[in-house]
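// run 5 | inverse folding | seed 20
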C-alpha cells in the first residue's frame, strides 16, 4: 500500500505572478544583469561628498559662458491657451471679403485638424472684427485691442512665423517649455538655473507667478511639471509665489517656533543629511540641504520683495490701477521687475484664459485688457531703469488660432480652433533687435511664407542671448545627453541686435 499523500506547506505556492518575478529579479536575474551592464549607465551624476555649502547655494554647472551674453535674465510672459494672432499682430484685411466662405483646400493642404472641428461640415473663414493701425518707425500693424503694447512697438521684435508640431494644449505647452511633447523633461527655467546658477543667494533663481484673468473662465490646467526639473537636481525647480496668504507655503514659522529655534533645527538637520550623504552619495541630499537653507533665507527676502511701499506713485500709475491688487497681471509684471532687480535669472508669468473656441470677440477683448498695460509698463519700466539692455522679455503662447470659425458664425461672434502652423510672439531687450517685424504668413494666416521660426529655434535664440550654446548645455541621463532643444534648433540671427 502506498504511503498517503503528504503536503508540505510552501509559501511560494501562494505567490502571484508579479511576486514571483519580483523575487526572481533579486536572484539569478540580478546577477546576470549586473555582469553585463555598466552600473553607472543609468545613474545620475553624483556630487562630491566634500561639496561646500557655497556651491550648494549657487550650483551653476557652467564654469564659463560659451560666448559674451547680451542678457543676464529672462522674464517670460506666457499666454496659456493660445492667443489668436489674427486679433493681435497678424493683420489680414483681405479676410473681410472672405467672410463665411470656405477655407480653400489649396490653403489647408490636407493638414491636420483637431477633433473639435474635424467633424464640421464647413470651415468658413472669418477675419477679425477689430481694427488694426500702424505704429512705430516701421509701421507695424497692431490691433486696437493692444494700445499700450502699440506704444512700445519700437522696443519689441514681433515674430509672426513661429510654429510647432503640437496641436493640443498640454503637449504644446510642455513642448515649448521643455523641448519635448511628453512630460518628464526639465523646463527652460530649470535649465537656466542649472547652467547659470543665481545672482542672489536669498531668492530662487527661477520664480513662477500665476495671474488672474477675465477672459474665458474654463481655462486649461497648468501642471507644476511645466516649471519642474525633470531629471535635473531638484534645487532648480521653479518656486511658485502665491498672491494670497504666505507667498510661499510653509515659509512662516509655525506658532511657538522662533528664528533661533528654526536655525538650530536646520543645523541639526543639515548634519544628519550630510552624514546620510556620506553613506549613500545621493546628490538629492545636497539639493535638500540647499532648499532648506533657501527657505530659511526667503523668510526675510520674500516679504521685502512683496512690499510695494517703496514704489513711487509714478511707477504704480505706469502699471495701471490693478498694479496694487495681488495676483493681477499688472501686479505680476511689477513683481517680475522687482525680481529682476534682485538678480532672479528666470521669472515666468502664466495667465490662462486664451483658449477661445467660442465667443472670441468678447473674451479676447477682456483678455487683452488684462495683459496690455502691464506688458507695456514692464518694457518702459525696465528701459527707464537701464535694465532692458540686459533683461530679455518674451511674450507668447503655445500655438495660434485658425482663420476658419469653430461653431456658429455670425457677423459679431465666432470662435477659432487651435492652429500650430503659425503664431505670433514678441521679444524685447537682452540683445534682441528692436522695432522689427520678422516672418510672414499667407493671406489666411494659415501657412508661413517667409522666415519660419520653430519653437526649438526660439529657445535656442533665448539661450544664445544668455551666453549659452544650446547644443552644449546638456545633462546625461539614462545613457544619453539631453538638452532643452533636444537634437534640433538654430539661432535666429536676424533677431539679434
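// decoded
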Amino acid at each position: 500500500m502506498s504511503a498517503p499523500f503528504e503536503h508540505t506547506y510552501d509559501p511560494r505556492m501562494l505567490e502571484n505572478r508579479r511576486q514571483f518575478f519580483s523575487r526572481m529579479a533579486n536572484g539569478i536575474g540580478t546577477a546576470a544583469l549586473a555582469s553585463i551592464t555598466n552600473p553607472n549607465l543609468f545613474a545620475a551624476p553624483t556630487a562630491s561628498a566634500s561639496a561646500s555649502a557655497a556651491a550648494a547655494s549657487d550650483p551653476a554647472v557652467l564654469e564659463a559662458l560659451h560666448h559674451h551674453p547680451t542678457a543676464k535674465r529672462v522674464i517670460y510672459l506666457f499666454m496659456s491657451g493660445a492667443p489668436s494672432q489674427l486679433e493681435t499682430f497678424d493683420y489680414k484685411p483681405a479676410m473681410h471679403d472672405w467672410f463665411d466662405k470656405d477655407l480653400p483646400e489649396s490653403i489647408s493642404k490636407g493638414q491636420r485638424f483637431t477633433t473639435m472641428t474635424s467633424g464640421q461640415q464647413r470651415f468658413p473663414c472669418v477675419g477679425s472684427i477689430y481694427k488694426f493701425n500702424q505704429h512705430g518707425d516701421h509701421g507695424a500693424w497692431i490691433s486696437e485691442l493692444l494700445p499700450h503694447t502699440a506704444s512700445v512697438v519700437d522696443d519689441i521684435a514681433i515674430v509672426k512665423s513661429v510654429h510647432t508640431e503640437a496641436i493640443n494644449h498640454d503637449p504644446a505647452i510642455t513642448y515649448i517649455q521643455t523641448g519635448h511633447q511628453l512630460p518628464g523633461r526639465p523646463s527652460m527655467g530649470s535649465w537656466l538655473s542649472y547652467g547659470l546658477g543665481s545672482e542672489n543667494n536669498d531668492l530662487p533663481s527661477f520664480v513662477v507667478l500665476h495671474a488672474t484673468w477675465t477672459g474665458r473662465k474654463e481655462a486649461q490646467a497648468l501642471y507644476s511639471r511645466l516649471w519642474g526639473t525633470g531629471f535635473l537636481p531638484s534645487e532648480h525647480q521653479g518656486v511658485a509665489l502665491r498672491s494670497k496668504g504666505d507667498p510661499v507655503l510653509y515659509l512662516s514659522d509655525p506658532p511657538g517656533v522662533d528664528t533661533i529655534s528654526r536655525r538650530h533645527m536646520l543645523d541639526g538637520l543639515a548634519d544628519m543629511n550630510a552624514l546620510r550623504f556620506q553613506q549613500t552619495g545621493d546628490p538629492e541630499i545636497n539639493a535638500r540641504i540647499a532648499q532648506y537653507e533657501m527657505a530659511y533665507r526667503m523668510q526675510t527676502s520674500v516679504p521685502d520683495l512683496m512690499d510695494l511701499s517703496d514704489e513711487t506713485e509714478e511707477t504704480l500709475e505706469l502699471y495701471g490701477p490693478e498694479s496694487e491688487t495681488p495676483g493681477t497681471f499688472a501686479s505680476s509684471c511689477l513683481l517680475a521687475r522687482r525680481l529682476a532687480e534682485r538678480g532672479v535669472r528666470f521669472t515666468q508669468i502664466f495667465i490662462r484664459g486664451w483658449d477661445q473656441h467660442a465667443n472670441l470677440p468678447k473674451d479676447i477683448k477682456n483678455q487683452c485688457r488684462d495683459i496690455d498695460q502691464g506688458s507695456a509698463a514692464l518694457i518702459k519700466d525696465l528701459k527707464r531703469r537701464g535694465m532692458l539692455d540686459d533683461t530679455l522679455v518674451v511674450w507668447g503662447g503655445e500655438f495660434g488660432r485658425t482663420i476658419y470659425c469653430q461653431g456658429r458664425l455670425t457677423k459679431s461672434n465666432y470662435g477659432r480652433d487651435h492652429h500650430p502652423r503659425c503664431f505670433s510672439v514678441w521679444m524685447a531687450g537682452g540683445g534682441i533687435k528692436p522695432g522689427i517685424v520678422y516672418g510672414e504668413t499667407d493671406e489666411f494666416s494659415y501657412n508661413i511664407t517667409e522666415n519660419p521660426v520653430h519653437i526649438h529655434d526660439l529657445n535656442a535664440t533665448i539661450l544664445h542671448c544668455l551666453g549659452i550654446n544650446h547644443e552644449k548645455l546638456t545633462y546625461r541621463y539614462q545613457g544619453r545627453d539631453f538638452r532643452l532643444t533636444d537634437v534640433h534648433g538654430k539661432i535666429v540671427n536676424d533677431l539679434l541686435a
